[in-house]
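On clarity, I found the account of how folds are encoded harder to follow than it need be. An entry of this sort, consisting of the sequence and the corresponding backbone structure tokens, reads as follows:
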Amino acid sequence: MVSSLPHPTTSAGRDGLAALLARPEKAVVALDFDGTLAEIVPDPEQARAHPGAVPALAALAPRIASVAVVTGRPAGVAVRYGGFAGVPGLDHLVVLGHYGAERWDAVTGTVQASAVPPGVASVRAELPGFLDGVGAWPGTWIEEKGRAVAVHTRRSTDPEAAFEALKAPLADLATRHGLVLEPGRMVLELRPPGMDKGVALAEYVREVGAGSVLYAGDDLGDLPAFAAVEKLRSNGTPGLLVCSGSTEVHELSDRADLSVPGPQGVVRFLTDLAEAVRAAKA
């Protein structure tokens, strides 16, 4: 292990990292996009991967079984915002968009997708008028996500108050249309049940036959993926949980084996990990 590679604070995390370094060809490295590979920005359409993310992934990906970006964004959007297409070294990259309902493979450069549930279209049509009816929060806005709809409060005059005030009404709206409400960092997402990062990650790990798994995330939506890794560990598959540091989400950092300072820290960790894997096999 290179000296600059940070050490996990838990025994399970140390076991996960050791397994990854011992057999990298069986390892899956999975990462959230927003807040992990890309900084959180007021307008999600302006989010882009950290400049060092693609070089770090390109150095790591050829040495392991697979890199998977697991995101609530549409797969094609994450590919564009990440700059993942056509990059030498990223043949082993997949993007599991919409929590696994969409999939982009670097090898083919194509997106595979299932049908959009009807409840999403119904909520999309009703939501603008619904928000007007539950109270005006200047700066709150709706993001269309194809297979989900999100209400952002980060640009509101009082983001936390708007978030708390809208949580219960939006949960009721989601239930009426057969959807679920997923809270995040000043965002409330309405999406179909059974779609989360834990389901997407567990299915992909089984598909690949991974011998170890690393997952890095930053938000409440990453908790199901953390839970999936914890379950894998209990069943004998070593894993490492990395928190992309945030002052907003303690639930994630409290369960992580290792915390790094945001996307910049994630990129540094991935860079050091690629070097550690190279050194271990030298």
